[in-house]
Amino acid sequence: MNSTGPRCEWSQRGPAIYTGGQRTIDFTLFTQFLLSGLIMGMLYCLMSMGINFIYGIMKVINWSMGEFFMIGSFAQYLLLLYVFPAHYWYAGVVLAALIVLGIGILVQYTLIKPMFVGIIEAKMEYATIVTIALSIFLRNLAVAIGGPYIYTPPDYAGPTQVLTLPLSGNRVIALLGAIVVLGIFYFFIKKTWAGKAFQGVAQNRSGIQTAGVDVLKYDMLAFGIGTALAGAAGALLAPIFLVHPMCGLAPTVRGFEIIVIAGLGSIPGILLAGLLLGLSESLGSAFISPSFVDIYGFVLLVIILLFKPYGLFGKPERAV
Amino acid sequence: MGLTAAVAVAVGLPAVLSDYWVYVLTIAFFYAAMAASWNLLAGYTGQFSLGHHTFAMISAYVSTLLMAKAGAGFGIGIAVAIFTAVVLSYALGVVCLKVHGLYLALITWAFAEVVRNYLRMHFSFTGGDRGLDSALLFGTLKPLPYYYLFLGITIFTLGVIAFIMYSRIGYYLRAIRDDAIAARSMGINIVRYKVLAFIIASALGGMAGAFYGHTIGLISPVMGDFNEMAMIIIFVVIGGMRTQIGPVVGAILIRIALELLREQSEIRIIILSALVIVVMRFFNGGLMEVFRRLPRWLHLKSAESVSAYEK
Fold first, then answer.
1. pTM
2. Which of B17, B154, B228, B238 could bridge across to B21 with cysteines, CB 3.0–4.6 Å?
3. Alpha helices in A59-84 (DSSP H)
4. What percent of chain B clears pLDDT 90, i.e. is strictly above it?
5. A285 band by pLDDT with thresholds 50, 70 and 90
6. B281 C-beta neighbours (distance < 10 Å), count
7. What is the pLDDT of residues A213-267, one digit of tens each?
């Protein structure tokens, strides 16, 4: 969130209400912070859903999620700069997500798949180290190619008003986009045959093979879809978080916090945890201090883990 | 035998090197100590902490802040810094190690970012991105005393790890790594020993970090950048996971290589991270495995049975 200094901070947090020690909060501002928290929470969910989906299918955490987010942002920025005019941003989002899907499938095929067919014995160790190395590789490659600069894509929409609340159009669009993407994802998982196959793979990898599902193919697809969710988030959030090599960092931290709060592998938990996190961050920055916005979510996480060690909706692992 | 020779060479080395290279080696020893203590946790216990560099940074800040704001001496500052690392790692370990192997990695990763952003933002107290001036431990910028200090810290870290590995606890930790459920069924309290390993590793990292702050003289949130953690992982993986000397060899050789290639800034870390992927994918064992297999490749030694885990 504040990994790029004051400029980013301003663009995300809206009007600062920190008025020299004496804080005045009226009803309008309060509801605006509430709404802003809900919007950010929804967007973090998108990120978290991708991490959770990959974990559910392959039982590995993809640590390079933030870099796929970054690739999505960069793809969107370049598409809007060279291919589409700015008001076709939705085409850019779709195309950026598809580009990230392709890269994700390539990465899975070359790096993660050998874990399941090869002789690698320590699976978790392998996946963790390889995806962390990949994340460092992609991040520094982005710095080497694009330089350590912050790029600003065109706004998707001008400022709007909901009832009496002034709202940034980019945020409204990002919220609607996130709801649409999550809706498509939900429909895909619950209603299509492939989605049912995914549920089967998540439940029992060897069992589903007896039903004729090619687990390795679905792994590849799952990794692609999970990273594509991050890419779509990156493209949707490009005008809010701006585009730079580290822009995936803050959403990824939130994504990981959310899946820990929710409990690994719980989809309704993710929605609730995402909204809780967004609310705690925006209310914390309203009532305490906007400088320490990263801390509120972490404190929330520690408090929840103290009382519910498996997260809000998590269940103890079944040890076989 | 070889170890004694290596230490003897390291002790004698400053006599023939310029101050510049002595300083490079001093920093290399810091990373060697960090890599070795991370290897205790990740390599031997199978628990991934992604906040190892954060404990070093916190210790450096605690010690420096105590000296600057409360007027403490070096001894108290460093002792409190190590104690802080122990307390924090105990709290985090109890929260996350009860549940799932991945929780520690997830939460320490978030913890690292949170702490780094806190230090950047709380400008009036921590100096923000500008950093803090830290008092020099020996009052001089000449690298020689710091070289011996960090040589000592590295040897101490290796000694602690070797002591643990050859004791009962070391066998417990490896048992937990190989199969946590089997270990539990044999009567090992796996949560307790995982937390213990986390505390020991973090305390060793915190100790190295506290001294490091007083060596470089200027501490800043850059110490908590994730690239630092990546460096530790790179040293351990390329040097050789699950070997006691591997991380040290990796850290020293790669730090020297990085120094020689300092004209190419980002390219170095791009190449290294690609190398880590290649090592993990095709040659899981790193440099130490190369050294071990070298005699066989050169036909100096007949084939022998290969164990995947070093004792």
1. 0.88
2. B17
3. 65-78
4. 56
5. confident
6. 16
7. 898 999 999 999 999 999 999 999 898 888 999 888 888 989 999 988 988 777 8
Among candidates A63, A111, A124 on the partner chain, residue whose Cβ is nearest the Cβ of B277: A111
Per the CB < 8 A criterion, the answer to whether B223 and B268 are in contact is no
pLDDT in tens, A160-209: 777 667 778 888 888 899 999 999 999 999 899 999 999 999 888 888 88
CA distance A142 to B261: 20
Which tokens hold the place of A126? 């392998």
A46, A233 Cβ separation under 8 angstroms: yes
C-beta neighbour count of A22 within 10 angstroms = 6
Do the Cβ atoms of B227 and A309 come within 8 Å? no
B130 token code pair:
């500008």
Rounded to a whole number, what is the distance in Å from the CA of B32 to chain A's nearest CA?
19
Query: Are the beta carbons of B120 and A298 separated by less than 8 Å?
Result: no
For β-strands A165-167 and B132-133, DSSP reports them as unpaired
Q: Kindly tell me if the per-residue pLDDT of A1 is higher than 50.
A: no
Asked if residue B241 lies in contact with residue B48, where contact means CB atoms within 8 angstroms, the answer is no
Distance CA A291, CA A295 (A): 9
Coil, strand or helix at A237: helix
Whether residue B308 and residue A292 make contact (CB cut-off 8 A), yes or no, is no
Do the interacting molecules here have an ipTM over 0.85? yes
DSSP line for B116-167: HHHHHH-HHHH-GGG-EE---TTS---SHHHHHHHHHHHHHHHHHHHHHHTS
Nearest C-alpha neighbor of B168 from the set B145, B143, B187, B141: B187
Q: Which two tokens stand for residue B150?
A: 């960090």
Q: Which residues contact B151 (CB under 8 A, 6 or more apart)?
A: B7, B10, B11, B29
Closest listed residue to residue A64, CA positions, set A132, A113, A122 = A132
